[in-house]
Amino acid sequence: MRILIIDDDVELAALLREFLEREGFKVECAHEGTRGLSLAEQGSFDLIVLDLMLPGIDGFSLLKQLRTRSGVPVLVLTARGEDEDRIVGLEIGADDYLAKPFNPRELLARIRAILRRVVRPRGRIEVNGVTLDPGTREVRCDERRVEITTLEFDILEMLIRSAGQVVSRDALMENLYNRKATPLDRSIDMHVSHLRRKLETDRPLIKTVRGVGYQFCASAEDAATSEVV
Predict the structure, then answer these.
(1) What's the domain range around 206?
(2) CB atoms within 10 A of CB 225
(3) Which of 11, 53, 112, 150 has the fewest CB atoms inside 10 Å of its own CB, making it the most exposed?
(4) Enclosing H/E stretch for 180
(5) pLDDT for 130-172, tens place per residue?
(6) What is the distance of C-alpha 95 from the center of its chain?
(7) Which of 97, 118, 139 is the last residue of a domain?
(8) Strands 130-133 and 138-141, how do they pair?
């Protein structure tokens, strides 16, 4: 697996590179936004670790541009306590985030959790007009191709494979992020909101069951049983 680290902290990037290479990854570093975007767009990396504060192109702009061309998983590094940065990063397509300073072992766990989701293709499934192909990671809704991020795909796959049943927020967090949900962590909710907007149908597809989680509606009867938010 190849990882690209984009961080202007040369010493930190070097330490992370050494650490991750000991864990079996191939790692390349960029210390400036324009160079990082150029490398990222080459499409040869399995995951990108992206700092938000960069010279040249900042991390937000880099991620936004990258998401128009690529669904490569991106783990964003943010300054401690900067909730707004975390929220904006998730909104424009980050798969996960980690606050600085951080423990390298936690970074490794987050990276492995993301890669486990990506490298597990199974058979194509279709429910209620939505077709999902884990092999190509392509999604179609009523025959229209839908562009979604890596994490959005993983959430949709988990919901579709449990169509008609409620999947709790805790289950989604543990399966996708390898950690438990907290009352203030709204990352799953934000990604589900993005999915609803991108699927854009005249019928409810993803239902919120208040206080529990989400349900992919396999039929009109599912959509009618409780509130859709």
Answers:
(1) 125-224
(2) 11
(3) 11
(4) none
(5) 999 887 889 999 989 999 888 899 899 989 988 888 888 888 8
(6) 2
(7) 118
(8) antiparallel
Question: Using an 8 Å Cβ cutoff, are 74 and 61 in contact?
Answer: no
Beta-bridge partners for 26: 2
Same domain, 114 and 129: no
The residue from 81, 100, 118 where one domain ends is 118
Within-domain flag for 229 = no
> Could you tell me whether strands 2-6 and 47-51 are parallel, antiparallel, or unpaired per DSSP bridges?
parallel
Which tens digit of pLDDT belongs to each residue from 15-53? 999 999 999 899 999 999 999 999 998 878 999 999 998
53-56-109-173 Cα dihedral, nearest 10 degrees? 70
Whether residue 227 is predicted with pLDDT greater than 60 in this model: the reply is no
- Same-domain status, 108 and 213: no
